[in-house]
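Much of what follows relies on a compact textual record of a protein's fold. An example makes this concrete, so a full record is given next.
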Amino acid sequence: MKVQSTFLVFTILVSTLIFSCNNTDNAKSKKNEENKTTLNLEEAQKGVEKSIAGFSEALAKGDAKSAANFYTKDAVFMPNNAPIVTGRDSIELALAGFIKAGFTKLNVESTWTDSCGEYFIDTEKWTLSNGKITMTGKSLVVWKKEDGIWKQYKDMINTDTL
């Protein structure tokens, strides 16, 4: 009796593992989803360049709210020598600080781009000036489309100068 019940439990466990690990259909479905989210790198880069221009223009106008709208709702901004800023509203406050200090002249140059699924990844060299002080630095930005517009999803900046 004990051997039969042990065998039955073993058979149920093995059957459960076999059927739960059979991901053939799931793997095909996942592969199809990946193919749908593969980006056209050239088109994505043009969209990102348009967003960078819009972001720079918003800073030049001193409009923190418009600048923050170039970040996703759940974005993460990691400024140099400062705490992590999470969410568009908090990023708006951080950008308002830059603007209040007069840092409104931004120039960005992409140095490397790639994509991963639905994300566009960009490394950049930048300068940010208030007319008296010019900071130079680099950034690593993960972009994501939100509402049809490429927006900064994860943005980490680091200055070369103080």
